[in-house]
Specification:
The complex is a heterodimer of chains A (109) and B (111).
Chain A: E1 4-6, E2 11-14, E3 19-25, E4 33-38, E5 45-49, E6 55-57, E7 60-65, E8 70-75, E9 84-91, E10 97-99, E11 103-108
Parallel strand pairs in A: 2-11
Antiparallel strand pairs in A: 1-3, 3-8, 4-5, 4-9, 6-7, 7-8, 9-10, 9-11
Chain B: E1 4-7, E2 10-13, E3 19-25, E4 32-38, E5 42-51, E6 54-57, E7 64-70, E8 73-78, E9 87-94, E10 100-102, E11 106-110
Parallel strand pairs in B: 2-11
Antiparallel strand pairs in B: 1-3, 3-8, 4-5, 4-9, 5-6, 7-8, 9-10, 9-11
The chains are: A mainly beta (109), B mainly beta (111).
Amino acid sequence: RKEVEQDPGPFNVPEGATVAFNCTYSNSASQSFFWYRQDCRKEPKLLMSVYSSGNEDGRFTAQLNRASQYISLLIRDSKLSDSATYLCVVNGYNNDMRFGAGTRLTVKP
Amino acid sequence: DAGITQSPRHKVTETGTPVTLRCHQTENHRYMYWYRQDPGHGLRLIHYSYGVKDTDKGEVSDGYSVSRSKTEDFLLTLESATSSQTSVYFCAIRRQGDEQYFGPGTRLTVT
């Protein structure tokens, strides 16, 4: 079993839609959680950290469920520019960061 | 902009040849990382450094070595490249907490 698992998608949604991604992790001792965004043939860029109480940044909301060991990312009012691959990142058993394989999102006009 | 550059950005090399990739940072961060990214696997850690001359192995370190003689430079060497090392290589630095910021990547093809 992979340490961090994501639904690969692709998710194809119309502009203005709300879309949610989930990510599960296996290390119950993990303390750090992030969502990154990666555009095609580019480097991953930090989208947001995920805090225990949940956090919001504009149209983006991240939540952590420690009991079920998953994190989620909600995107409201999707824009064409949100089209990208979203990577879930969790610190792993050796305290290094473990990346999910990513979920691809395409927002269509 | 995280102040990280990687060179070369693209390289094609033959099986069995040595290859060195360079990562350069301008912000004096202590921690630096090398990852590879392959379809279906996400990013996997190859090696990391926690200071000058201080390095450690990651998840997929076989066939790779690293060196860090200056804070700003972290080198990744493939002693004898194999086709399985065809990949995109990303360097990263760590800022506050565990937040990592990535360089633009190097596309390596081993023929």
